[in-house]
Each structure stands twice: as C-alpha cells, then as structure tokens.
Amino acid sequence: MQDRDLMQDILMLEKGVCDLYMHGSIEASTQNVNQAFRSALGESLSLQQNIYQQMSDMGWYQTDCAPEDKVTQLKMKFTQQ
Q1: CA 24 → CA 13, 31, 39, 41, 67, distances in Å?
Q2: What is residue 81's predicted lDDT score, i.e. its pLDDT?
C-alpha cells in the first residue's frame, strides 16, 4: 500500500469520525454531553484539515475551481428563493 493510499484512508476515516461527532452533538440529551461532542468535533475537524493540507502539499488531493458562470448561476438561484 502506498503512502497516498494510507493518507486517503486516514482522511476518509477522520471524515467519518467528524460525522459521528456531529450527530452525537445533535442528539445529545444534556448540555454536558453536547459540549463533549462539540469539543471532540472541533478537534477532529482540525485533524481532518491537517491531513487534507498534508495531502494537498504532496499533490495527492487536488481540487478544481468551479467555473465562474456556474457560481453565478447558483448565487442567482438561491437569492431568488
């Protein structure tokens, strides 16, 4: 397994953890439980960002810019509602 594959797996796992923490926060029955999930979510999001940044720096995670006309169309669509 290549380093890139390992990093992609780690990133996907971390995204899944973020999803679980978010839902835990939403469903929390007390303020203390909610705060614990929110704190864990914040840490996990930070870790996810660091993993993404490392992959991006290595050229392993490329993002494409959206065409300006598509962005404009979406802006118009949602401002008209």
Answers
A1: 16, 12, 11, 9, 36
A2: 64
